DNA sequence: AAAATGATCAACCGCAAGACC
DNA sequence: CGGTCTTGCGGTTGATCATTT
């Protein structure tokens, strides 16, 4: 016997929520809290499934939601976190109070992915696309000469400097140099910007926690457990991406 | 002005994990 | 210990709005 559906779907309303539905759900949750999503629609007088109500609450109605576009700082943090955590959107969202996993996932898919692609960075691996292709080829090669190794080390060192914010080595007027470094760039090994906190980190953006007492939200205790991930542990600055972006823009104009 | 195309994001779906009995 | 239920997650879809042709 297969699993039963989360709810009886026949006759249930689907699609965009109306203002009236939002009011009903919000009024119910703020007055009663959530004990079982399955029972919420019935008790709140909604013709929706519990899953739909849960999603609506988490992604839209929660009082602690942060509205508006993500800041550049947040965007940079998302990129760094994605490099460490991959597509674990709920884990990433846990670092951004008031933001939802859905929001961050959408932002990644519609904006950051494109931005990285424009910079020839593979959004999956966070490595330059050409380097990814090259590394695949290299896997098939049995050995590498010491001379080549020495050259690669030098290239890596240069990127390390840049990642650390030391632009003194870079002469952006020489595109050849830039391309040479670009090819040798290995983001993952250099950047490693965020200490893995998966296991000891605060519970994810659990709706259970704050939804049981939505008026309180998660402002106090949960936020205290969160560890800011911005500058402290970050070796790689997004500034240098912007710098490259500006550089290419400048080059294309001339 | 209309059609085509692209961008955005809310909402849905199926699956997996954990809780419960 | 196994079956069922509930919740949460990540991938995907499709409606809507904006921009381009």
Topology:
Layout: H1 19-32, H2 40-44, H3 50-61, H4 72-85, H5 89-93, H6 101-118, H7 129-140, H8 146-163, H9 175-184, H10 187-191, H11 207-211, H12 221-225, H13 238-253
Helix pairs in contact: 8-9
The structure holds a DNA duplex (21 and 21 nucleotides).
Outline the structure in words.
By secondary structure, this protein is an all-alpha fold. The chain folds into 3 domains: 19-61; 72-118 and 200-225, Arc Repressor Mutant, subunit A, CATH 1.10.10; 129-192 and 234-253, no CATH class. Helix content is 55%, strand content 0%. The chain has 13 helices and no strands. It has helices spanning 19-32, 40-44, 50-61, 72-85, 89-93, 101-118, 129-140, 146-163, 175-184, 187-191, 207-211, 221-225, 238-253. Helix 8 packs across helix 9 (175-184). The protein is elongated, with a radius of gyration of 24 Å. The termini are far apart. Mean pLDDT is 62; it is low at 1-5, 142-147 and 150-254. It binds a DNA duplex (21 and 21 nucleotides) through residues 1, 3-4, 6, 14-17, 36-38, 50-52, 54-56, 58-60, 87-90, 101-103, 105-107, 109-111, 204, 206-208. Residues 9-61, 62-116 form the HTH myb-type domain. Its main location: nucleus.
What class do helices, strands and sheet pairing give?
mainly alpha
Rounded mean pLDDT is 62
Strand content: under 5%
In sequence order, what are the helices and strands, one letter per element? HHHHHHHHHHHHH
């Amino acid at each position: 016997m297969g699993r039963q559906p989360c709810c009886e779907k026949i006759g249930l309303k689907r699609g965009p929520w109306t203002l009236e539905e939002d009011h009903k759900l919000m009024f119910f949750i703020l007055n009663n809290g959530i004990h079982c999503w399955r029972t919420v629609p019935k008790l709140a007088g909604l013709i929706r499934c519990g899953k739909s109500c849960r999603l609506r609450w988490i992604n839209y109605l929660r009082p602690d939601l942060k509205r508006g576009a993500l800041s550049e700082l947040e965007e940079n943090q998302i990129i760094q976190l994605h490099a460490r955590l991959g597509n674990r959107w709920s884990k990433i969202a846990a670092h951004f109070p008031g933001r939802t996993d859905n929001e961050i996932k959408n932002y990644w898919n519609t904006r950051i992915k494109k931005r990285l692609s424009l910079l020839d960075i593979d959004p999956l691996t966070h490595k330059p696309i050409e380097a990814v292709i090259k590394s695949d080829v290299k896997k098939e090669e049995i050995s590498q000469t010491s001379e080549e190794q020495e050259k690669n080390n030098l290239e890596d060192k240069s990127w390390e400097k840049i990642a650390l914010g030391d632009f003194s080595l870079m002469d952006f007027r020489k595109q050849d140099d830039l391309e040479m470094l670009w090819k040798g760039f290995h983001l993952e090994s250099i950047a490693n910007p965020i200490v893995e906190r998966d296991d000891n980190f605060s519970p994810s953006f659990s709706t259970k926690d704050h939804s049981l007492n939505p008026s309180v939200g998660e402002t106090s205790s949960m936020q205290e457990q969160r560890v800011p991930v911005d500058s402290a542990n970050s070796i790689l600055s997004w500034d240098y991406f912007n710098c490259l972006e500006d550089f290419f823009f400048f080059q294309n104009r001339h």
